[in-house]
Amino acid sequence: MTILVTGASGFIGSAVVRRLLARGETVRCLVRAGSGNRNLDGLPVERVTGDVCDAASLAGALAGVEQVFHLAAIYAIWMRRPGRMYQVNEEGTRNLLTACRMAGVRRIVHCSSVAALGAHGPQPADETSRFNLAWTRDHYYLSKFRAEQVAWQFVRGGLPVVVVNPSVPVGPRDIAPTPSGQIILNLLQGKLPAYLDGGINLVDVEDCAEGIILAMHKGRVGERYILGHRNVRLKEYFDMIVTVAGQGRSPSIRLPPAMGVASGYLYEALAWLTGIAPLTTAAWARVGSGYSWWDNTKARRELGMTLRPVEQSVAEAVQWFRENGYLAF
Predict the structure, then answer these.
(1) Which of 108, 126, 131, 175 is at a distance of 20 to 30 A from 248, taking alpha carbons?
(2) What is the pLDDT of residues 255-301, one digit of tens each?
(3) SS3 of the chain
């Protein structure tokens, strides 16, 4: 049986591919022409050129495929043309699921995000939560919410889709790096002078990948599963990174939310002038001032998801960044 993975060269996607190969599976990877696929180098996978935004390219990629892991998405805090994010995350999901239905794919795991569920305060929320972050006007959060709504439309139409919602992944091979990895780099490079009084949920990228595969085999069609581990305040996370890395300094200044938003606007203005992605944005400051804390009981109970200490995940991420020239030793 051939398994198709979209977003296979990405941070979580490449971890999924490696775990599938370790299980002895035959893996086909959908890769875009001209894109960087370093995370797939040396792996015994079949590469098929295509794009979720190009519906015509998907039929060939799905030939003979029974299972699909859909991880292709844009994860960014800022884009000069944010419409591209909706095109990939939302319309790309619609294109792929349409092609899966036409190809008779037997089972699909759609990789969403806790971003699609919002942020509900310091009391950990679960899979029943409703998206509540439209007011932040953040394109990533909105596009992931809308992409998941597309998946539910196909579920209602009879397509066998299981949805997973990873939290903030941490670990090696974050080649982009994603905003999650960039937090580590910014902190250790002394670029974070202050912090917001918010909270996030962390998960090891390998545990996340295993949870995604478990969802294929044990997840219930039409259900979602939060793939997260430890809830931490941002200040606690920054302290952890500095301690584990043995370098840098954790910020000691706590910014009020309004000041964080104002600084986000300044960073965005600079990004428009330079074309370089900003350190943060007004929308991300709004998001970061909340608590995205999650209860992973359902994934542990139904999928059998296991979890490693996040300090180990941070250590492996820092080591990979050092070994690959992102950080000085």
Answers:
(1) 175
(2) 999 999 999 999 999 999 998 989 999 999 999 999 999 999 999 99
(3) CEEEEECCCCHHHHHHHHHHHHCCCEEEEEECCCCCCHHHCCCCCEEEECCCCCHHHHHHHCCCEEEEEECCCCCCCCCCCCHHHHHHHHHHHHHHHHHHHHHCCCEEEEECCHHHHCCCEEEEECCCCCCCCHHHCCHHHHHHHHHHHHHHHHHHCCCCEEEEEECEEECCCCCCCCHHHHHHHHHHCCCCCEEECCEEEEEEHHHHHHHHHHHHHHCCCCCEEEECCEEEEHHHHHHHHHHHHCCCCCCCEEECHHHHHHHHHHHHHHHHHHCCCCCCCHHHHHHHCCEEEECCHHHHHHHCCCCCCHHHHHHHHHHHHHHCCCCCC
Q: Which of 75, 140, 291, 326 is catalytic?
A: 140
**Which pLDDT does position 282 carry in this prediction?**
97
Domains of the chain: 2-173+202-230+294-301 (3.40.50.720)
Overall size of the chain counted in residues: 329
pLDDT tens readout for residues 193-217: 999 999 999 999 999 999 999 999 9
Q: Given the structure tokens 């490693």, which residue do they identify? A: 308
